[in-house]
Amino acid sequence: MEEYKENIQDKGDNVKLSSKPEEDDKSCNKVCSNIGEPVPQVSSTRGEFSDPVYKEIALANGHINRMNKDELRSKLAECKLDTRGVKDVMKKRLKNYYKKQKLSLMQSVTEGGPTDAYYDFICVVDFEATCEQDNPLDFTHEIIEFPMVLFNTHTLDIEDSFQEYVRPEVNTQLSEFCIKLTGITQKMVDEADTFPDVLKRVVLWLQEKELGTKYKYAILTDGSWDMSKFMNTQCRLSRLRYPQFAKKWINIKKFYGNFYKVPRTQTKLSSMLEKLGLQYEGRPHSGLDDSRNIARIALRMLQDGCQLRINERMHEGQLRTVPSSAPVEGAPPPHNPRSRV
User: Fold this and answer.
1) Could you give the CA distance from residue 319 to residue 315 in angstroms, rounded to a whole number?
2) Rounded CA separation 5/7 (Å)
3) Catalytic residue among 6, 141, 145, 285
4) pLDDT digits over 7-35, tens only?
5) Residue burial 154-182, b: 16+ Cβ < 10 Å; e: rest
6) 285 assigned to active site
7) What are the residue boundaries of the Exonuclease domain, all occurrences included (predicted)?
8) How far apart, in whole angstroms, are the C-alpha atoms of residue 226 and residue 269?
9) Prediction pTM value
10) Which of 138, 141, 146, 256 is an S-S bond match for 129, by CB 3.0 to 4.6 Å?
């Protein structure tokens, strides 16, 4: 439903997490020595960015910018990195890998730097909702599929998933357009539970994973609409308070656009996959399959050195941006929301 969400949003609205540093090996050292000089001894009295290592990184970036596509692929292969993606993506991947190498060496001669793995797990959510081909602006979208895909930020593996269909209570009959788009049939939703019961099982699933208690985690979505529109509307229809654990999330579209320097028009799910040299796996507009593919994008971004952080939240029923200067925090322990009075 991702490209469909883009269309309806345009109508009605505006608006360690990097992979662990790889072990140094001979081929990697060879590549890095071709780009920059060895890291000098670090003086603890210097400013944060005054060390010569940052000049080396800048010089390396200039060298990488002058590489053609074949040279980039060759260097990435020597460093045992993924060679897929468009030229700008490959540049970003090589720059971040070299930067992490240099900084890890610099930290090894000081007190050891802080790790970037703030969240232990990230949980991808991508709802499917009732829809019509030409939705009026006041059309009520009800969640009809609640999927979650959980991946480990340390191992960079998808560890588990959750999926349940949801029976709508306002527009109980699915439109032919909705059935064709999502692959969700009338029989599937007729046999499903309503949202409050499904949400209870979502909370139980998250609790069983010890998220928010033993492990730090965050919700991740492909855009703002899943939480600011679909979850918000559904909780109102179901007379539930908005769940605390879902009030803050990572909007991967914003991070993708900023990290790879691409415009919003190139942050649709299909475009993001294509630019990373990946192909969609599964059925488009299946909530679970969309979530898995969004997770694949997030994992590739972590491998490329992106630091994913919560960047959006709900406040008094309104969507707000979380500034990058805000303290880094994860989602709270999941609990069932109270009923609205």
Assistant:
1) 6
2) 5
3) 285
4) 665 554 443 333 333 334 444 444 444 45
5) eeeebeebbebbbbbeebeebeeebeebb
6) yes
7) 121-307
8) 14
9) 0.75
10) 141
